[in-house]
Design a protein that fits this description.
Putative phage tail fiber protein, 15% strand, 2 domains, two-stranded antiparallel sheet
Length: 155
Protein backbone atom coordinates (compact mmCIF):
# COMPACT_ATOMS: atom_id res chain seq x y z
CA UNK A 1 0.00 0.00 0.00
CA UNK A 2 1.42 3.38 -1.03
CA UNK A 3 0.51 6.91 -0.11
CA UNK A 4 0.47 9.32 -3.02
CA UNK A 5 0.45 13.08 -2.98
CA UNK A 6 -1.50 14.51 -5.88
CA UNK A 7 0.47 17.59 -6.84
CA UNK A 8 -0.80 20.43 -8.98
CA UNK A 9 1.28 23.54 -9.68
CA UNK A 10 3.82 22.57 -7.03
CA UNK A 11 1.28 22.15 -4.21
CA UNK A 12 -0.22 18.98 -2.77
CA UNK A 13 -3.90 19.18 -3.72
CA UNK A 14 -4.90 15.80 -2.26
CA UNK A 15 -3.47 12.67 -0.69
CA UNK A 16 -4.60 9.15 -1.54
CA UNK A 17 -3.69 5.65 -0.40
CA UNK A 18 -3.80 3.02 -3.12
CA UNK A 19 -3.47 -0.63 -2.33
CA UNK A 20 -4.35 -1.98 -5.74
CA UNK A 21 -2.47 -2.45 -8.93
CA UNK A 22 -0.45 0.67 -9.66
CA UNK A 23 -0.81 0.07 -13.39
CA UNK A 24 -4.58 0.65 -13.24
CA UNK A 25 -4.50 3.86 -11.18
CA UNK A 26 -3.85 7.29 -12.68
CA UNK A 27 -3.67 10.75 -11.20
CA UNK A 28 -6.47 13.14 -12.17
CA UNK A 29 -5.83 15.39 -15.16
CA UNK A 30 -3.43 18.23 -14.38
CA UNK A 31 -1.96 16.44 -11.35
CA UNK A 32 1.10 14.33 -10.84
CA UNK A 33 1.16 11.48 -8.34
CA UNK A 34 4.23 11.27 -6.14
CA UNK A 35 4.85 8.62 -3.50
CA UNK A 36 4.85 10.47 -0.19
CA UNK A 37 5.76 9.69 3.39
CA UNK A 38 3.21 9.68 6.18
CA UNK A 39 3.72 13.35 7.09
CA UNK A 40 2.93 14.91 3.73
CA UNK A 41 -0.51 16.47 3.59
CA UNK A 42 -2.65 18.86 1.58
CA UNK A 43 -1.04 22.27 1.22
CA UNK A 44 2.55 21.05 1.28
CA UNK A 45 4.84 22.19 -1.51
CA UNK A 46 6.66 19.94 -3.98
CA UNK A 47 9.63 21.27 -5.97
CA UNK A 48 9.97 18.23 -8.22
CA UNK A 49 12.28 16.41 -5.82
CA UNK A 50 11.18 16.96 -2.26
CA UNK A 51 8.17 17.98 -0.20
CA UNK A 52 8.12 20.97 2.14
CA UNK A 53 5.66 21.87 4.85
CA UNK A 54 3.86 25.15 4.35
CA UNK A 55 5.08 28.06 6.44
CA UNK A 56 2.83 29.88 8.85
CA UNK A 57 0.27 32.05 7.15
CA UNK A 58 1.19 35.68 7.43
CA UNK A 59 -1.84 37.86 7.69
CA UNK A 60 -1.63 41.56 6.99
CA UNK A 61 -1.36 43.75 10.08
CA UNK A 62 -4.60 45.17 11.45
CA UNK A 63 -5.29 48.90 11.44
CA UNK A 64 -4.61 48.90 15.19
CA UNK A 65 -1.25 47.15 14.74
CA UNK A 66 -0.22 49.55 11.98
CA UNK A 67 -1.22 52.55 14.08
CA UNK A 68 0.58 51.31 17.19
CA UNK A 69 3.79 50.58 15.28
CA UNK A 70 3.82 53.89 13.41
CA UNK A 71 2.87 55.94 16.47
CA UNK A 72 5.74 54.38 18.43
CA UNK A 73 8.10 55.15 15.54
CA UNK A 74 7.01 58.80 15.39
CA UNK A 75 7.27 59.17 19.17
CA UNK A 76 10.81 57.81 19.09
CA UNK A 77 11.65 60.17 16.22
CA UNK A 78 10.55 63.18 18.26
CA UNK A 79 12.24 61.95 21.44
CA UNK A 80 15.50 61.42 19.51
CA UNK A 81 15.36 65.00 18.23
CA UNK A 82 14.97 66.25 21.80
CA UNK A 83 17.76 64.00 23.09
CA UNK A 84 20.03 65.44 20.39
CA UNK A 85 19.71 68.76 22.25
CA UNK A 86 20.30 67.15 25.66
CA UNK A 87 16.67 66.89 26.76
CA UNK A 88 15.45 63.55 28.13
CA UNK A 89 12.53 63.45 25.69
CA UNK A 90 10.26 65.75 23.75
CA UNK A 91 7.92 65.80 26.74
CA UNK A 92 10.76 67.12 28.88
CA UNK A 93 11.78 69.72 26.26
CA UNK A 94 8.23 71.04 26.05
CA UNK A 95 8.13 71.78 29.78
CA UNK A 96 10.52 74.66 29.11
CA UNK A 97 8.03 76.45 26.82
CA UNK A 98 6.42 78.26 29.75
CA UNK A 99 9.65 78.90 31.67
CA UNK A 100 11.18 82.33 30.86
CA UNK A 101 14.21 82.06 33.18
CA UNK A 102 16.50 80.88 30.34
CA UNK A 103 15.31 82.33 27.02
CA UNK A 104 17.19 79.73 24.92
CA UNK A 105 15.43 76.83 26.67
CA UNK A 106 12.07 78.56 26.47
CA UNK A 107 12.48 79.16 22.72
CA UNK A 108 13.45 75.52 22.18
CA UNK A 109 10.52 74.37 24.29
CA UNK A 110 8.13 76.46 22.20
CA UNK A 111 9.65 75.09 18.99
CA UNK A 112 9.34 71.50 20.19
CA UNK A 113 5.75 72.06 21.32
CA UNK A 114 4.69 73.51 17.97
CA UNK A 115 6.58 70.80 16.07
CA UNK A 116 4.92 68.05 18.12
CA UNK A 117 1.46 69.28 17.11
CA UNK A 118 2.39 69.51 13.42
CA UNK A 119 4.00 66.06 13.46
CA UNK A 120 1.00 64.36 15.06
CA UNK A 121 -1.38 66.12 12.70
CA UNK A 122 0.53 64.83 9.65
CA UNK A 123 1.10 61.37 11.14
CA UNK A 124 -2.62 60.84 11.76
CA UNK A 125 -3.50 62.17 8.29
CA UNK A 126 -1.20 59.55 6.78
CA UNK A 127 -2.59 56.76 8.97
CA UNK A 128 -6.15 57.75 8.05
CA UNK A 129 -5.24 57.57 4.35
CA UNK A 130 -3.84 54.08 4.92
CA UNK A 131 -6.95 52.93 6.78
CA UNK A 132 -9.19 54.36 4.05
CA UNK A 133 -7.25 52.46 1.40
CA UNK A 134 -6.09 55.70 -0.23
CA UNK A 135 -2.43 54.76 0.02
CA UNK A 136 -0.12 51.91 0.93
CA UNK A 137 1.42 51.59 4.37
CA UNK A 138 4.53 53.78 4.24
CA UNK A 139 7.85 52.31 5.26
CA UNK A 140 9.33 53.75 8.44
CA UNK A 141 11.71 55.86 6.36
CA UNK A 142 8.90 57.14 4.14
CA UNK A 143 6.76 58.09 7.11
CA UNK A 144 9.53 60.03 8.83
CA UNK A 145 10.38 61.78 5.54
CA UNK A 146 6.77 63.00 5.23
CA UNK A 147 6.68 64.55 8.68
CA UNK A 148 7.33 68.26 9.18
CA UNK A 149 10.89 69.22 10.03
CA UNK A 150 11.78 70.66 13.40
CA UNK A 151 12.39 74.42 13.11
CA UNK A 152 14.61 75.40 16.00
CA UNK A 153 15.16 79.06 16.86
CA UNK A 154 18.41 80.62 15.74
CA UNK A 155 20.74 81.93 18.40
Amino acid sequence: MNKYALVKDGVVANVVVWDGNEATWQAPAGHIAVIADEFVSIGWGFDGQKFSAPGPEISPPSDEEITAQKVALVQEHMDAAARALNYDSIANAITYADEPAVPKFQAEGLAFRAWRSLVWERCYEILEQVQNGERAIPSDEELIAELPALALPTA
